[in-house]
Design brief:
Elements: H1 17-22, H2 28-47, H3 55-72
Length: 76
């Protein structure tokens, strides 16, 4: 069995969530490394592919539009 600290979020059961969250590294270097892993995963899945399409770029653009809209609207 895989230890809770090495599981991904989608593999953690609801009862194990507090223990899993407690095992995360919330230091600045831990957060930075998590962001780097997320970027690498996104890049390798959507951008760095043999048969590339517009999907990854469109998703990035859609995210930018949503964030820009939220920042522009103060009532949200």
């Amino acid at each position: 069995a895989v230890p809770i600290s090495e599981r991904r979020l989608l593999e953690v059961k609801l009862g194990e969530f507090p223990a899993w969250l407690g095992s995360r590294d919330f230091s600045p270097s831990g957060v930075l490394s998590a962001l780097r892993r997320g970027h690498d995963r996104y890049y390798n899945k959507y951008i760095n592919v043999k048969k590339g399409g517009i999907g990854g770029i469109a998703m990035l653009l859609a995210g930018y539009v949503v964030v820009s809209y939220i920042w522009d609207r103060e009532h949200l």
